[in-house]
């Protein structure tokens, strides 16, 4: 596909392409649609998540036809003689129906985005107003509209797409970063982890480019906030947050929102970090715990440094079974965010503690390939 349509390299995440995640996500989506072709309602949640990703990347209907044509060519090449005309026609129909469903869903998302005050379609220039180093690995970027207009509001938990030119690849590349502040009309904040190593993956190249090459005053292209891994702001029931590493960023936004709005919802936050010095926003969590009886936090450090002050911390990786009833709340919604192995473990442990799968929400880094039940 990239040979015949090289312009798509500027849209597709080359890190996910390199790791095969994008190809897997496409195959799973088409297969899931074919398996549920008589009951598309069963795919509402995964298709919604894909739709938000596509809207955030400014995907348009005509691009579905390009991908579909190359997908059928790939099926023909892989199956060889088994790819009979009736079989190819059946897959073409299934993909066409899926593309139509997605295009319709995304059209609604585009319309909703433009209708918001300060909303826009496509890419919009923003400027980095300031950079704040949270830890040796994580830096926050405060992004303001270059045109002086308002920044569209968002639902806590959503993300934005950031597009930069990456000299190493000779491409413009987009990446999604969770918003890490309460909604406001002036700016967006993202908190980005630097990827260490001599040869970071294409994913790491973007994050490191932000850290190393961009300073206050530099410009970025952004799409409007998107994503359906969000806090249900209509509820008053407890919220349990479980994060690993930089997976904490959407939860910072959720908590900032709850505090800013004077919410009385109970919040329990369990977070895991390699050590105390790499725990971004640590003092903010401690402050929230001191100030509010409705907020409690538990921290796991894989390698505690020296003698830590007395607080609710545990040595090792996040283990909800160790906390037991401390993280269980009647009627609570449970939100998980972190690397894929982290999500699998926390989901499994919550279910073992008696939490219903339908009450557990998770955000997977990159394309949607993880299916937890």
Automatic annotation (TrEMBL):
A GO BP annotation: cellular response to nitrosative stress
Ranges annotated as spanning the membrane: none
Residues covered by the Globin domain: 1-107
Cofactor(s) annotated in UniProt: heme b
GO function term, MF aspect, one: oxygen carrier activity
Pfam families: FAD_binding_6, Globin, NAD_binding_1
Catalysed reactions listed for this entry: 2 nitric oxide + NADH + 2 O2 = 2 nitrate + NAD(+) + H(+); 2 nitric oxide + NADPH + 2 O2 = 2 nitrate + NADP(+) + H(+)
InterPro entries: Cbr1-like_FAD-bd_dom (IPR008333), FAD-bd_FR_type (IPR017927), FNR_nucleotide-bd (IPR039261), Globin (IPR000971), Globin-like_sf (IPR009050), Globin/Proto (IPR012292), OxRdtase_FAD/NAD-bd (IPR001433), Riboflavin_synthase-like_b-brl (IPR017938)
The keyword ATP-binding is assigned to this record: no
EC number(s) reported in the record: 1.14.12.17
Keyword entries, A-Z: Dioxygenase, Heme, Iron, Metal-binding, NAD, NADP, Oxidoreductase, Oxygen transport, Transport
Residues covered by the FAD-binding FR-type domain: 121-232
Family under the similarity heading: In the C-terminal section; belongs to the flavoprotein pyridine nucleotide cytochrome reductase family. Belongs to the globin family.
Record's protein name: nitric oxide dioxygenase
Species of origin: uncultured Cytophagales bacterium
Organism lineage string: Bacteria, Pseudomonadati, Bacteroidota, Sphingobacteriia, Sphingobacteriales
